[in-house]
């Protein structure tokens, strides 16, 4: 790969989690209002990669095509607080986003954990330092998912339950990033891509375990994105994106509508 392309990959990875059509949905005016809805989480919930960002959201990059916006438009909640923010960690949710919750909150959605695990650094390592370094860094990320992340997720989920005790809480995961069959000019070896997918599987397993243990619904995005990964014939994820490197490795508008929104709608 050319040096400038490696630079783009690294810059994209540094913004990695930093996370449209509603065809068939009944018009909001034709439906009874849904309960008050609050959308928490990281860039996969704010809609990085889906375009049409609210200028007032600044670096949080909240998209009009993000699944929380789509769900709100289709279900007409009595109120809608969209506080998900690019780059958010579990600490960020605890220190600010939870202020949007109250006893009156009826629906909560959240994707969180990717930034805690350090996938940005992992992708940078994989892009710049070759297969051996990539596999080592992925192993470190997987160890964090197993050993440290569960307690961090518990802290967030406990706080959500305390702040919004009557809410229906939907925890959304992350897709696998790569289709492995056949050749793919994605800048990483097949072994590296397989390792990254395995780390995503670990993250899904741990997140589902902790979410369901709190009585929350878990939305597994892996089935929805099967056949739409990077290197498939119909990508719902950005690979390296130039000049807007910040959207790299994030769902496209189709990924938000066909993947995240569809899963969310099926759980509420």
Characterise the protein shown here.
The chain is α/β, with parallel strands linked by helices and 268 residues long. The chain has one domain: SGNH hydrolase (Rossmann fold), CATH 3.40.50. The protein is built from ten helices and five strands. The protein has helices at 3-14, 43-46, 67-75, 90-95, 114-117, 119-147, 149-163, 190-213, 222-225, 253-267, and strands spanning 36-39, 80-82, 105-110, 168-172, 217-219. Strands 2-1-3-4-5 form a five-stranded parallel β-sheet, with helices on both faces. α8 links the parallel β4 (168-172) and β5 (217-219). α1 packs across α6, α3 packs across α10 and α7 packs parallel to α8. The longest helix is centred in the middle third of the chain and has 29 residues, at 119-147. The radius of gyration is 18 Å and the shape is globular. The N and C termini lie far apart (44 Å). 52% of the residues are buried. Mean pLDDT is 88; it is low at 1-7 and 19-30.
Element order, helices and strands?
HEHHEHEHHHEHEHH
Give the helix/strand class: alpha/beta
Give the spatial strand order of the biggest sheet. 2-1-3-4-5
Portion in strands? 5-15%
Radius of gyration using CA atoms only: 18 Å
The termini sit apart by: 44 Å
- Silhouette: globular
Mean pLDDT: 88
Q: Which architecture would the CATH scheme give at its second level?
A: 3-Layer(aba) Sandwich
Number of helices: 10
Signal peptide: 1-25
Protein name: SGNH/GDSL hydrolase family protein
Active site: 43, 250
Disulfide bonds: 60-85, 126-134, 184-231
């Amino acid at each position: 790969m050319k040096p400038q392309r490696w630079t783009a990959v690294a810059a994209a990875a540094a913004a990695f989690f930093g996370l449209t059509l509603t065809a068939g949905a009944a018009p909001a005016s034709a439906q009874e209002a849904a309960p008050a809805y609050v959308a928490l989480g990281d860039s996969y919930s704010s809609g990085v990669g889906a375009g049409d960002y609210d200028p007032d959201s600044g670096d949080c990059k909240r998209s009009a095509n993000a699944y929380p916006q789509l769900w709100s438009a289709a279900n007409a909640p009595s109120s809608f607080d969209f506080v998900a923010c690019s780059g958010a960690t579990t600490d960020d949710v605890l220190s600010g986003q939870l202020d949007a919750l109250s006893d009156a909150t009826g629906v909560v959605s959240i994707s969180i954990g990717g930034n805690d695990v350090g996938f940005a650094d992992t992708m940078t390592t994989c892009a710049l330092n070759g297969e051996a370094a990539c596999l080592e860094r992925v192993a470190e990320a997987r160890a964090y998912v197993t050993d440290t992340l569960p307690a961090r997720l518990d802290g967030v989920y406990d706080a959500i339950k305390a702040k919004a005790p009557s809410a229906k809480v939907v925890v959304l995961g992350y897709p696998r990033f790569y289709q492995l069959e056949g050749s793919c000019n994605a800048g990483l070896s097949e072994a590296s891509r397989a390792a990254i997918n395995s780390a995503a599987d670990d993250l899904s397993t741990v997140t589902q375990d902790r979410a369901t243990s709190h009585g929350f619904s878990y939305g597994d995005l892996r089935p929805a994105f099967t056949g739409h990964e990077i290197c498939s014939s119909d990508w719902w994820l950005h690979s390296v994106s130039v000049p807007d490197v910040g959207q790299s490795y994030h769902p496209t508008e189709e990924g938000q509508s066909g993947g995240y929104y569809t899963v969310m709608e099926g759980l509420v």
